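Supplementary notes for students who missed Thursday's class. We covered one full example, reproduced here. Read the sequence, then the structure, then the short commentary at the end.
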Amino acid sequence: MLSKRIIPCLDCDLQVPNGRVVKGVEFKQIRYAGEPVDLANKYYEDGADEIVFLDITASKDKRESMYDVIEAATENVFVPICVGGGIRKPEDYVRMLKAGADKCSTNTSAIKRPDLINEASELVGSQACVIGIDAKRRHVNDESEAKDKILVETDNGLCWFECSIYGGHEFTGIDAISWAMECEDRGAGEILLTSMDRDGTKDGYDLYLTKTISESVDIPVIASGGVGNPEHMLEAFTKGKADAALAASIFHFDEYPIPVVKKYLNENDINVRL
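Structure (token representation):
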């Protein structure tokens, strides 16, 4: 059985030359959380299975991603690194991998030009091609209101999940579940799935969203958005059927360090790397 992965997420911008890590609530209310290189080193030493860097303003600002930050961060970090934000063309994947990353995550550019997924997976391999999906619940009172959507019965009634782009600043009308399946068909090797409704709330992952997409694709799904304690990660694996659990706040602010999370999961029969 493959081990479940615990992944710290560094949401970064380039407001300062070396970058900074920030954390928000529902993609808003941004606050400072540290420096990318320092946090990456800390999480590597703490036993992270992988580290995700998301350049959260690159797409919105229409600039290149943070290649220099990744080069510096990967000098002493020897776990897989995934980088998202500002990856627009196949050559960007190659450049980021040369900078030290192992995978690239694309959201906005893939939605705007889906052939990018095919091209990138052929160029660098599916294992390096991650698709980020930032999804928000859209509730409906009647199935006829959303005939072309995949509807899910949740704790708050019937809904579908809409994809957003540009760091949550624009909505697309695209159904997240259908899009995940298309991404797999096009060659994506993994889905980084974030619930916009739960992001930063510490109310737990959106298990309806996570489970539905996990059961709809055969590639790994990383649960993201809403973790507040180790129990939420346990739920992501047992109820959400996720392959990995991503968190930010609980790690950045030392609420539940990675060793504490892994010990809890191991005691609850989740196969993790200790």
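Commentary. Residues 5-267 form a domain with the TIM Barrel fold (CATH 3.20.20.70). The chain has a mean pLDDT of 92. If anything here is unclear, bring it to office hours.
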